[in-house]
């Protein structure tokens, strides 16, 4: 299941760019030829995000064309 590895990379990238802010939402664009099982990504997301700034974040998977697979955006909470 390569989705676990993909999810680990997604969390690592988001964590790095969030700079310590809590992540509320992660949006991915995934195309039908990306060879990615979106249900497996959803399953892995909460497990991999546990204990990180992305813990309890919502994963949003948006349809895309072709073999697109990218982190479209992520949303963080305002720093207190």
Could you give a short description of this structure?
The protein has 80 residues and is α+β, with helices and mostly antiparallel strands.
Overall shape: it is globular
CATH topology: hypothetical protein PF0899 fold
Q: Enumerate how many helices there are, as a single number.
A: 2
Strand order of the largest sheet: 2-1-3
Count of domain modules: 1
User: What is the share of helical residues?
Assistant: 25-40%
Span of the ends, CA to CA: 38 Å
Strand content: 25-35%
**Structural classification:** alpha+beta
Largest sheet: 3 strands, mixed
Count of β-strands: 3
Sequence-ordered SSE layout with sheet pairings:
Layout: H1 2-18, E1 23-30, H2 38-49, E2 58-63, E3 69-76
Parallel strand pairs: 1-2
Antiparallel strand pairs: 1-3
Helix pairs in contact: 1-2
Question: Your description of this structure?
Answer:
The chain is an alpha+beta fold and 80 residues long. The chain has one domain (2-76): 2-Layer Sandwich (hypothetical protein PF0899 fold). It is built from two helices and three strands, in the order H-E-H-E-E. It has helices at residues 2-18, 38-49; strands at residues 23-30, 58-63, 69-76. A three-stranded mixed sheet has the order 2-1-3. The protein is globular. The chain starts with a helix and ends with a strand.
């Amino acid at each position: 299941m390569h989705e676990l590895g993909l999810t680990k990379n997604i969390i690592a990238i988001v964590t790095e760019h969030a700079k310590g802010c809590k992540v509320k939402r992660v949006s991915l664009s995934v195309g039908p030829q990306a060879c990615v099982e979106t249900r497996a990504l959803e399953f892995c997301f909460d497990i991999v995000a546990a204990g990180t700034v992305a813990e309890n974040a919502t994963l949003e998977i948006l349809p895309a064309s072709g073999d697109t697979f990218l982190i479209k955006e992520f949303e963080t909470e305002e720093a207190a």
